Amino acid sequence: MQFTVNVQDLLDGLNTVTRALAARPAKQILEGVLIEADAAGINLTCSDGSLTIETSLPAEVRETGRTVLPGKLFTELARKLPGGEVTIKVGDNHAASIRCMSSKSNLAGMNPVEYPEMASVDNGVTVHIPQKQLKEMISRVVFAIATDESRQILTGCLLEVSKDEARMVALDGFRLAIQKVFQPFELPNDVETLKAVIPGRVLNELSKILADEDEFCTLLIDKSRMQASFGSTKLSTVLLAGEYIDYRKIVPLSFKTIAKADRTGVQNAIDRASLMAREGKNNLIRMSFSGDTLSITSNAELGDVLEELNAELSGDPIEIAFNAKYITDVIRNITDDDLCMRFNSNVSPCVVCPQEGDQYLYLILPVRVFN
Fold first, then answer.
1. Fewer CB within 10 Å: N-end or C-end of the chain?
2. What pTM was estimated for this model as a whole?
3. Which domain range does residue 183 map to?
């Protein structure tokens, strides 16, 4: 096998596919990147056994073939190349000779016969979502995906697609995050709502390689796998098995208190209060809504913080405490000018959603405190 490719194209491709590499792969072959050269160019593939990422690059191919090179080392080597064009020649022993301007390297390879094929998705449902919107949806819910493996289904994010909207739902036991995209979707006649639980790690990696543009990402989903195709890249993953929690039962339908305040002002005040909260034993901040004032306080042995802002209150005054990180994560993912918070009591969930519409919803459990 022999081909010549632009160094930056090669590096971009390697940076994309090596996101699928596992820290501790089950097989040595999965430490590598599969390189396939044919008349159309070259294909790069990496896999950890359940997640596979493949991308194609334009290249001048003099001799077709396949090899597997060490993924991380090859990527670092490509990053250090002087630039321009690089020529890679692979012999019968699968080792690669890499030539770029005055730089010459040799890299031991592995037999590509042992490399697993990307599993295909058969008889699935196809969903088209603009890359920019999908990227934004993921970024605004991924923080609420559980990392505790004891409830594996919560280490994934629920994707629900109906004929007029797609929504992503993440829940870790302390927070619930919902983001929606409103557009028509074509579903089979026998499918009212398409549901899939996508592993959190997969969504993290997908959001990093999606482009910030309106070109579509095509999702092909069956009962056990999902394939995402965009540009010259394909990502394939195993879905999490099992029923996701019925999150609709968690969200309150009515509220005794509704409060509104400037979102930027609240975020900055909480950031300052969090500095002191982190010095305390439980990272707590307290929010007190009364009249037209919102007071935010935090205490530690080293001192205390008091922040006061204007607020609009409808209903009963309330004082409530939150883990500073949990409330901060939510507010950072809101872009509205106003922060609208809904309460029933200081021990029941707080719901953050728009004043009008329902493009997003966040639910945060408060911390019970004893004065």
1. C
2. 0.92
3. 125-248
